[in-house]
Amino acid sequence: MPFPVYSRNAPLKEHVGPVHVVTYNTTGQYVLSGGQDRKIILWNPNSSKLVKSYIAHGYEVLDIAVSYDNSKFVSCGGDRTIYLWDVTSGSTTRRFSGHMSRVNAVDFNADASVIASGSYDAKVRLWDTKSSSQRPIQLLEEAKDSISTLQIVGSQIITGSVDGYVRVYDLRMGQLCEDLIGYPVTSIKDSTDGACVLVSTLDSTIRLMDKSNGTMLQSFSGHLNKEYRIRSCFGDNDVYVISGSEDGKIYAWDMLSRRVVHELKGHGEKVISCVAYHPKKPQMVSCGIDGSIQVWDCS
């Protein structure tokens, strides 16, 4: 199957300064972005329209996750705070604090009753969104360095840390599996079938790891990732691996052959920090330190 040819639409420009995260909602109808300017912006990627801005963070926004029903989202950032938002009203409904340093990553469980947050303080905290308590319901503190990325998948919490480990916590079974990658982890992404996890690291390599035994199944290289947190993702039902790069390009690899099948330029020569793929059609969005968001449609 040939990789689709993507054309770049007019950039979405509203943020001032670097944009750290961009993500689709579960239907792909809207995109949320967060950046150094402390703003979170809701976009319609098809019309390039700004729908709404959300402002509460006192420092840069570093991660955003959307609930499955798209009614709420959670954000975190440099102010050490996690905010739970109502999408329609634009207001925060809960505020969680307890981390000792910036919060790098957040995610919901399936019904949005629990939020996981990972911090520079090397801790993962779990928060009950339905309880009035401000205390975390669980603390995961096995990491020896900053938690850079995490994802909740069913009863599992997958974390990536600057200490070079990917950790899979199975809360139902009460088990922890630790896999040493050997380089600081910047991004993790679970595969559609839940059997593998895509791991980006600061040695300019992306690895596809078997979650059951920690075996490396594939590796992908050619991009540049030595200094910045760059988030990779799967594309087109896990047929492709896609990542930004510090050389200002988006790289796409064929999953089976590991061959680079596409290089896209859209942010000048600036670092592309995050790429997200549409959940239902061949479209993706990217953001970077140039302050813009690019929408890529299949032409």
Topology:
Elements: E1 6-8, E2 19-24, E3 31-35, E4 39-44, E5 49-55, E6 61-66, E7 72-77, E8 81-86, E9 92-97, E10 103-108, E11 114-119, E12 124-128, E13 138-140, E14 147-153, E15 156-161, E16 165-170, E17 175-180, E18 185-190, E19 196-201, E20 205-210, E21 216-221, E22 232-235, E23 240-243, E24 249-254, E25 260-265, E26 272-277, E27 283-288, E28 293-298
Antiparallel strand pairs: 1-28, 2-3, 3-4, 4-5, 6-7, 7-8, 8-9, 10-11, 11-12, 12-13, 14-15, 15-16, 16-17, 18-19, 19-20, 20-21, 22-23, 23-24, 24-25, 26-27, 27-28
Q: Could you explain how this protein is built, in words?
A:
The chain has 299 residues and is mostly beta strands. The protein contains no helices and 28 strands. It has strands at residues 6-8, 19-24, 31-35, 39-44, 49-55, 61-66, 72-77, 81-86, 92-97, 103-108, 114-119, 124-128, 138-140, 147-153, 156-161, 165-170, 175-180, 185-190, 196-201, 205-210, 216-221, 232-235, 240-243, 249-254, 260-265, 272-277, 283-288, 293-298. A 4-stranded antiparallel beta sheet has the order 1-28-27-26, with no helix packed on it. Strands 2-3-4-5 form a 4-stranded antiparallel beta sheet, with no helix packed on it. Strands 6-7-8-9 form a 4-stranded antiparallel beta sheet, with no helix packed on it. A hairpin with a 3-residue loop joins strand 3 and strand 4. It starts with 5 loop residues before the first strand and ends with a strand. The relative contact order is 0.15. The model has no long low-confidence stretch (mean pLDDT 94).
